[in-house]
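User: I'm putting together a small comparison set for a docking exercise, and I want a reference complex before I start. The sequence is below, and the ligand is calcium ion. Could you produce the 3D structure with the ligand included, as structure tokens?
Assistant: Of course. I'll restate your input first, then give the structure tokens for the complex.
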Amino acid sequence: MQKVNHHAAEAVTSTISQKSGGASGIPECMPPIRRRTFKVIIDCDPGIDDALALMLAAASPELEILGITIVSGNVPARMGAGNARKVLKQLNRLDIPIYIGEEKPLKVKYVDASDTHGRDGLGESFLPEVPGDFPQKHAVEFLEEMLEKEKLSIIALGPMTNLARLFQKRPDLIGRVERLVSMGGSFKSHGNCSPVAEYNYWCDPDAAAVCFEKFAEAGRKIEMVGLDVTRKIVLTPDILSYMKRLDPETGEFIRKITGFYLDFHWEYEKIIGCVINDPLAVAYFIDGTLCSGFDCFTVVETEGICRGQTVADAMNFWKKEPNSHILTETDTKAFMYFFLSRVLCRKGGGKWRREELSWLENLSRG
Ligand SMILES: [Ca+2]
């Protein structure tokens, strides 16, 4: 099946087709519509839900992905880089460079999440390795060089070790970060690896703490897509089944990498389906209406039983300038339309339109 290669760079200069009767259906008299594209680096630890997030990002013409930087998290950085490459191969996007970054948290002992993501980090799908070397350049060095060159945004989907190293060394570069959207933390929802902590911030609490501190010092805000919103995004067997009917190749790929994850969720949370955290951060980056929240000052606890907890001063006790935008609500159905209409391909090319995915309505009647 021919995959549509949405190279975001093409979208920078492209205008939407204006021909009367063309695919867009926009009459010729309409002025050209220019779609803004955002230069981004995706910092991640693939990871099943990272893989889904990369699929969504690569299928989104609004994003020009300058590179993918890898950090140890769900799996060790080197394995995560291999997994990122497996996903890019599936997407025909091996042109996106992948840089390996920090192998260990700043201070604490590294604990992976292979219990959730499987021994290979992709749900024990054991997809074949994609041969080739990775660039020698360290992820932090790549981030530094790119930010020196131009303003860009960062979508952080793993522990924030690479970013903490970068901002410790070069706090001045925070001014060059247009947006930092971080999947991590939690406001009121319970944790997913301790009663109060989400895995990314728990895995390297010192790194998360550094990032929030440095952003506070710079008078900037981290957009925190935490468990309050991501926990609501559940990929169910019904949705997987529909995906396979609409796009057998993509559906089968996603089924293969999520099977183990589904079993984990049944065993530990008695959910039929799996929570997919990371794609929501990508979707929210592109379409801010998918989530809503509030600004406040946030600190990350680094020690003791509250390690990795995000203490968000929602009531402004500390009278400090906000260093975070905490997302607390999300439209789950709008997200699913957004995700599927981008990730699924039609036979012969093209994407499914939102109105053609109305079967999602049937699922909610179930
Ligand atoms: Ca992740």
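The radius of gyration is 20 Å. The first helix runs from residue 8 to 13.
User: Thanks, that's exactly what I needed.
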